[in-house]
Design a protein that fits this description.
The protein has helices spanning about 10-25, 30-35, 40-50, 70-75, 85-90, 130-140, 155-180, 180-190, 195-205; strands spanning about 60, 80-85, 100, 115-120, 140-150, 210-215, 220-230. A 7-stranded mixed beta sheet has the order 3-2-1-4-5-7-6, sandwiched between helices. It is of the alpha/beta class. It is globular, with a radius of gyration of 16 Å. Helix 2 runs antiparallel to helix 7, helix 6 runs parallel beside helix 9 (about 195-205) and helix 7 runs antiparallel to helix 8 (about 180-190). It has one domain (about 10-230): Rossmann fold (3-Layer(aba) Sandwich), CATH 3.40.50. The model has no long low-confidence stretch (mean pLDDT about 95).
Length: about 230
């Protein structure tokens, strides 16, 4: 699916995403917990469980934000390293993991440096998803694992309608009351950046991944994509 013309693209998107997350960082966790009814906590734990890597494995958490996944990774015995484009988000991070400000499409790491990668709710924010998957293929060692969490749209027609109403109308109001209204209007619209599931999984395969699986969570309002580096 191509993003609507009204959504930023290219370098304009990079700047817009960085500025938006810098702005909403102070209350990002609070708004997430409220608007997902804390379901995001369980989704992140499921993401970490799906890695199936040995204790002590080095796991990159890309678009690390305030460190939610880094904390879960540490709690499961992994050695996380967080990276995010937004300095504002990293400044509000609550984790002991090493953090770096970096573009996930150009990571300052050698080939095969990571045993695994997690990424939460950021696939639609990257300028080029294919380039992101290629960078995952470069930085994850052979046999390493990735677990990518993001929003989805339910297949059930009733759930799809209700989710669209909530995500498109209620979430922006919650965000406007507690944080930045324009950012929480953008976030529901940004789902349009995501390609169809088939295209997304084929692109992952082309980047060198096998054992690719896409699992819908909580009736299909979230998705978890896992894969192993060939």
């Amino acid at each position: 699916m191509s993003p609507p013309v009204s959504l930023p693209q290219g370098e304009e998107k990079v700047q817009a995403v960085r500025s938006m997350f810098d702005a909403i960082a102070p209350r990002y966790d609070l708004v997430n917990r409220i608007m997902t009814f804390r379901l995001d906590v369980g989704w992140r734990k499921a993401t970490v469980r799906s890695l199936h890597l040995p204790v002590g494995s080095v796991v990159l958490d890309l678009a690390a934000g305030t460190g939610d996944l880094c904390r879960d990774l540490s709690g499961s015995g992994y050695a996380p390293i967080g990276a995010d484009l937004s300095w504002g988000m990293l400044a509000h991070a609550r984790t002991q993991a090493p953090l770096v400000q970096a573009d996930a499409l150009r990571l300052p790491l050698p080939d095969g440096a990571a045993d695994g990668v997690t990424c939460g709710f950021a696939l639609r924010n990257f300028v080029d998803l294919g380039a992101f998957f290629e960078e995952l293929g470069r930085t994850v060692r052979s046999g390493g694992r990735i677990a990518l969490l993001d929003v989805a749209e339910p297949r059930n027609k009733v759930l799809h309608w209700g989710h669209g109403l909530y995500f498109g109308k209620v979430v922006p109001k919650i965000g406007g009351l507690l944080s930045d209204a324009s950012a929480y209007r953008y976030l529901p619209q940004s789902v349009a950046y995501l390609p169809t599931p088939g295209v997304m999984l084929d692109t992952l395969a082309a980047a060198g991944f096998v054992e690719i699986d896409r699992r819908l969570l909580t009736g299909g309002i979230a998705q978890l994509i896992t894969a192993t580096r060939r």
